[in-house]
Design a protein that fits this description.
- The protein has 9 helices and no strands.
- By secondary structure, the protein is mostly helical.
- The protein has 2 domains: 103 residues, no CATH class; 68 residues.
- Helix 1 crosses helix 2.
- The radius of gyration is 49 Å and the shape is rod-shaped.
Length: 198
C-alpha cells in the first residue's frame, strides 16, 4: 500500500509542475509520514490520563487543547525541517542527485559493471590514470637525463679530439726516438750504458 502512495505522491507532484525532483518528493513524503506517526503517539487518552482533573471538569477544553497542541507541534516540526532544508540546500542537492542518476543510468542493452573475481584485473581501470601520470613524469625525467648526457657528451668531444691529437703527436715522437736509437751503432750504445751506470 505504501508503494502505491509513493507513486501517487510522485505522479501528483509531477502533474502540479513541482520544481522538486523525484527523490526530493520521496524525502518530503517520508518526512510527512514520519511526522504523522510521531503525532499519532500524542493520543488524547494519554493527555486525559495525565490531566485527569481537567478532563473530568471540562473535557471539551482539553480536546481543544489537544488539537491545538497537535497543530502547533506539527507546525513547529515542519518549520524546523524547512529551515534545515533551506540552510543545507537539500532540495538543490537532491535535484542534482536526480540529474546525476539520469546521466549515469545505463541503457536497456548496457550491463552494469560487476567484479570479475580477479582483483588485479578489477583494479586496473582505477590505477590506469595514476600509472599514466607516473609514466609521463618518468618520461620527463628521462628526457632531462638524456639532454644532460647530450650536453656532457658535446662538452667532452673537444677534449677527446685534443687527446687524440696528443696521442698521435706522442706516437710520432716515440717513433722518431726509436728511429734515432736504431741509427746509433751498437758499440756506442754499450759505451753509453757503461758511462750512465758509473
Amino acid at each position: 500500500m505504501e508503494d502505491t502512495e509513493v507513486r501517487e505522491v510522485t505522479t501528483s507532484a509531477a502533474k502540479t509542475n513541482d520544481p522538486d525532483g523525484r527523490r526530493m518528493q520521496l524525502l518530503n513524503y517520508g518526512i510527512q509520514t514520519s511526522i504523522k506517526k510521531c503525532l499519532s503517539a500524542v493520543r488524547y487518552a494519554r493527555i486525559e490520563k495525565v490531566l485527569s482533573p481537567i478532563a473530568q471538569s471540562s473535557p471539551e477544553i482539553l480536546k481543544q487543547i489537544h488539537k491545538q497542541m497537535e497543530c502547533q507541534l506539527q507546525t513547529n516540526i515542519m518549520d524546523e525541517i524547512s529551515s534545515m532544508f533551506e540552510e543545507e540546500n537539500i532540495s538543490g542537492l537532491m535535484n542534482n542527485l536526480d540529474k546525476i542518476i539520469e546521466e549515469t543510468s545505463l541503457g536497456p542493452d548496457e550491463q552494469a559493471w560487476r567484479p570479475s573475481g580477479d582483483p588485479s584485473l578489477d583494479v586496473l581501470p582505477h590505477v590506469y590514470s595514476t600509472k599514466l601520470k607516473e609514466r609521463s613524469s618518468l618520461e620527463k625525467i628521462l628526457k632531462e637525463v638524456e639532454d644532460k648526457n647530450r650536453q656532457l657528451h658535446e662538452a667532452l668531444r673537444p677534449r677527446q679530439q685534443r687527446l687524440e691529437t696528443l696521442k698521435k703527436d706522442v706516437l710520432k715522437e716515440c717513433q722518431y726516438w726509436e728511429e734515432a736509437a736504431g741509427a746509433i751503432p751498437e758499440d756506442y750504445k754499450q759505451k753509453m750504458e757503461k758511462f750512465i751506470r758509473t
